[in-house]
Amino acid sequence: MKNILLNLMGAFLLFLGETTYAQLNSNGNISSTLSNTNYFMDASNFEGLANKNYGRGLGFPRTDLTNFIFNKDAMDNEVIVSDFDGMVVYNNATGNTAPGQGLTTAVAPGFYYFSNPGNPGNLTKGKWIAIGGNSDKTNITTTETATHTLINNEQVYAVKGTFSTNGTSTAVNIPSPSGMTGMYGITIYKAGSGNVYSRDLYSYTLGSNGGNAVTGSQSMSVVYPAGTYDYVLEYLK
C-alpha cells in the first residue's frame, strides 16, 4: 500500500508539472524512487548542475495570515491527520492572525509554522510561530497583542495604555481588556523619561470601570505624583 501511495503521489506531481495551467512546476522530471527511505522528497541531484544558480530555490505561495482560514473539512474528514501541526507558510502581511485560527498572534512578513501538538481534532491552542529572526520579538501596542510567552500552554497577551493621577489617591484606572481572567505582570513607566516606576501593583481588580488598580508594591500602597503614566499590562484570558 505504501509503494502504491508513493507511486500515485509521483504520478500526480508529474501530471501537475506537465499541465499547462499547473499549480506546481518542477525543474525536471519527478520520479517515485524514494520507497523505503527517510525522504518523502529529495532535490539534492540539482547539486550536480554546472550552473549553480539553477534548481536552488523553493517557491512558496504568499499567504496573508491576517486573513488566512483553515479548511477544517480536510481535518474533520481525516485528509489532514496532523491537525495542521508543522504546516509552513510564507506570510506577507502585518497584523494579528485571523480570529478562530488558533491563538491570536502578531505576525510580520516572513516564514511561519503552525504549532498544534497534542490538540487532536481542533485548532484552539495552535499558534503560528515565526521561523528565525522574528520569533523573539513582540510589538506591544494599544490593541491586544499575543506575546511569545505561554504559561501551562495558555497564551499571555499584552496591551499598552496610560493612566493619570491627581497626586492624592492610590486608586488609578487601568481597565481590564475584554476576556481577561488574570494579570501576569505590569510595567509602569513614563515614555521618554527613562524612568520605570514599578513592575507590580498593590492590588488589581478585574473590571472596566475606573479605580480598579491601586499603585504601589505588593506590601505597600503608594501615591504616585500627579501626572500621566504609561503601562504595559500582561494578562491571561
Descriptive account of the structure:
It comes from Chryseobacterium paridis. Residues 1-22 form the signal peptide. This is Calcium-binding protein. Keywords: Signal. The protein is mainly beta and 237 residues long. Helix content is 9%, strand content 29%. The protein is built from two helices and 14 strands. It has helices at residues 2-18, 72-76, and strands at residues 62-63, 88-91, 95-96, 106-107, 110-115, 127-130, 145-151, 154-165, 171-172, 182-190, 195-198, 203-204, 213-214, 227-236.
Secondary structure elements and pairings:
Elements (H helix, E strand, L loop, with lengths): L1 H17 L43 E2 L8 H5 L11 E4 L3 E2 L9 E2 L2 E6 L11 E4 L14 E7 L2 E12 L5 E2 L9 E9 L4 E4 L4 E2 L8 E2 L12 E10 L1
Parallel strand pairs: 1-2
Antiparallel strand pairs: 2-5, 3-4, 5-6, 7-8, 8-14, 9-13, 10-11, 10-14, 12-13
Q: How would a crystallographer describe the biggest sheet?
A: 5 strands, antiparallel
Quote the distance from N terminus to C terminus: 46 Å
Instruction: Specify the helix fraction band.
Output: under 10%
How would you sum up the global shape? elongated
Which radius of gyration do the C-alpha atoms yield?
25 Å
Mean pLDDT: 82
Number of strands: 14
- Beta-strand fraction estimate: 25-35%
Number of domains: 3
**Side-by-side strand order of the widest sheet:** 7-8-14-10-11
